[in-house]
């Protein structure tokens, strides 16, 4: 299992549209992907549960990936969050 | 007459076409039946989902072709929502438990809609509408009963529905639908965004619309004020025909100024900001192309409730307003209670002369805890967006220093608590008392900006209450006494090299624009619908011409002469 903490930088936070792109990308990986936020463990491939977690700009989240392609998955996940999902 | 939230501008007259979507919702539960075979129900769900995905993909591509890629993104989100593994696994689980496909979908989608509703987060709660939308789309696919056939909509119809769902909104043909009325929804709902993108006038949040409006009746929908009229008489129809024509004409003329800088004919750049009273206003002000907020009246956060909003609630409201305008500034005025604004739980004493009494900053400096809660929220929000603090009703330096001392206390506390805040937040004052205006040069040394509040300044300068019919004639911004004050405040700000704005009604008065340019006003804060008109007015005046007008105005002896002279210029311009 690999994991990394990252700060949410886009103004909308983990909202519908950025998360749509995010789960679209994560769906390609075989690994399990989890997002840890405010003590909750969220399925990183589930649009609904991520949006319902109301993760906002400025929040810190931890992404955990475990599986055959965990390194690549983590790298892409962190890259997307750090770049603000290409928003702004 | 019905009233709702105007979310898409324009005026429409047409025939009511009512669709009671709730009926279909009941149908969804009616369609529950005994599942014969799990495999069969699974297959039926798969089939409905495939059909939904194909149809949505088609609609999304359609929107993209029309250059509406943002709106297409909403539909792509819908596709991801139904493909979500936690959704499909829950549906499968329900089917395994013996539910038919309809019930499995309905239960699952309701579960997630409730989850979204329970977050208490406004934006997330609005997305619950998207989930219900997908639910009814899937349900109608399963029962082969399509909710709304856009071909059914007769030409010239005004659609009246319970909830405008995005999937409905994209099926609406702007050539047929003249307007949209819905019982629920707000300015930031996806449906509202789509209505604006399609350019269809829309009023959402009209309570009881489906109860009061009858199918086939003539309706007038005013997407500017949010008013809906049923069976208007001929005079009203004529009046609205005129309004609609004017609106069209103005919109075409003013739209040229959308997205442009606010600049005078001789190239001086000014700023046009908006006055707002709530977070929702911030969104519409941004949509109206304001370059910032020049006055956020925080009283409304405190009104119509039983106790003051706490720090978190205020913090969130300020952050949201700042985000709507990021990276442009939002000037937030601290609590301006008293005068004509009464808030029962603050237990303010009855005063003989409330306008000269214990109000605004005077009250706040005495009620330190209440004030500190607001200052802490503002300081914290300042770290999240571009926020400026504005103190109302200032009359002397002691008040500014008093507020700054409290702010310093708040900063110490926040630092000790390890909270993020902006220690260098810009702090300015409203110049709305003659005392502040006359000592503007002194006050300018200790603040970051001025904003002239012409409404109160006029009343205090002329010692006239505009609500008193016997003296209201004196209440006039064109009075030489008031104009001199405005000029001197601008001059003092220029000397101290701090920006000066104006957030009273005079800022949007087109007759005064040349004077304000000549005085050196930097920022015009107006109500959102006046933003483009003010920008247009600015573009017509060069500094040279403006100064000539101002010189003439300042040489006149009475308000009547000033008014006459400025009116004559208006006629010339036309």
TrEMBL record, chain A:
Record organism: Lentihominibacter faecis
Gene Ontology annotations of biological process type: phosphoenolpyruvate-dependent sugar phosphotransferase system
Subcellular location: Cytoplasm
Domain of life: Bacteria
Designated name of the protein: HPr family phosphocarrier protein
Keyword vocabulary terms for this entry: Cytoplasm, Phosphotransferase system
HPr domain boundaries: 1-88
Any one GO cellular component localisation term in the record: cytoplasm
Signal peptide: none
SUPFAM superfamilies referenced in this protein's UniProt entry, alphabetically: HPr-like
UniProtKB/TrEMBL annotation, chain B:
Keywords for the protein's UniProt record, in alphabetical order: Cytoplasm, Kinase, Magnesium, Metal-binding, Phosphotransferase system, Sugar transport, Transferase, Transport
Compartment list: Cytoplasm
Domain Phosphotransferase system enzyme I N-terminal positions: 3-127
E.C. numbers: 2.7.3.9
Domain PEP-utilising enzyme C-terminal: 253-538
Active site: residue positions: 190, 503
Chain ranges of the PEP-utilising enzyme mobile domain: 153-226
GO molecular function: kinase activity; metal ion binding; phosphoenolpyruvate-protein phosphotransferase activity
Residue positions binding Mg(2+): 432, 456
Function field: General (non sugar-specific) component of the phosphoenolpyruvate-dependent sugar phosphotransferase system (sugar PTS). This major carbohydrate active-transport system catalyzes the phosphorylation of incoming sugar substrates concomitantly with their translocation across the cell membrane. Enzyme I transfers the phosphoryl group from phosphoenolpyruvate (PEP) to the phosphoryl carrier protein (HPr).
Name the record gives this protein: Phosphoenolpyruvate-protein phosphotransferase
Biological source species: Lentihominibacter faecis
Upper lineage: Bacteria, Bacillati, Bacillota, Clostridia, Peptostreptococcales
